[in-house]
């Protein structure tokens, strides 16, 4: 018993020194992993014309926002795509305006 006490004291002093030397003192950090499920496909378009829609619209809108729009005439969709391109500078190539309008028209069928 008399021999063991000094060893414990030395051990405790060494451990405290090691913690201080690590820079954190008593603030030891324990990292942990988290798994998060993001809403899908919420932000991204899927299905007909998805690649072009994601490239042209996803920077600013979720797919849900665009998908939730009502049926519009083909010409109205074209005006809408031109508005996004010319007013808000959506990354839409001039050659894709008609294609996008058609895709949007096809994805929003008239109510039956
Ligand atoms: C650079 C950002 C940006 C991109 C990219 C973009 N939009 Fe928009 N969009 C906006 C803004 C800003 C508004 C809000 C306009 C307002 O409040 O008047 C809007 C509004 C809309 C609306 C609601 C009706 C309206 O005119 O306000 C629709 C539908 C729409 N966008 C569809 C699209 C589609 C389809 C694409 C891809 C071809 C697209 N947007 C790409 C910025 C963008």
Describe the structure.
- By secondary structure, the chain is mostly helical.
- The protein has two domains: 1-30, no CATH class; 50-107, Cytochrome Bc1 Complex, Chain D, domain 2, CATH 1.10.760.10.
- Helices cover 49% and strands 0% of the residues.
- It has helices at 4-21, 50-57, 63-67, 74-86, 97-107.
- Helix 4 (74-86) crosses helix 5 (97-107).
- The mean pLDDT is 83.
- The structure holds heme C (HEC).
Condensed summary:
Helix 4 packs across helix 5. 49% of the residues lie in helices and 0% in strands. The protein is mostly helical and 112 residues long.
Number of H- or I-type helical stretches: 5
What is the CATH superfamily label of the largest domain?
Answer: Cytochrome c-like domain
CATH class categorisation of the largest domain = Mainly Alpha
Which band does the percent of strand residues land in? under 5%
Record the SSE blueprint.
Blueprint: H1 4-21, H2 50-57, H3 63-67, H4 74-86, H5 97-107
Helix pairs in contact: 4-5
Bound molecules: heme C.
Key traits:
elongated; binds heme C; Cytochrome Bc1 Complex, Chain D, domain 2; mainly alpha; 2 domains; single chain; 49% helix; 112 residues; 5 helices
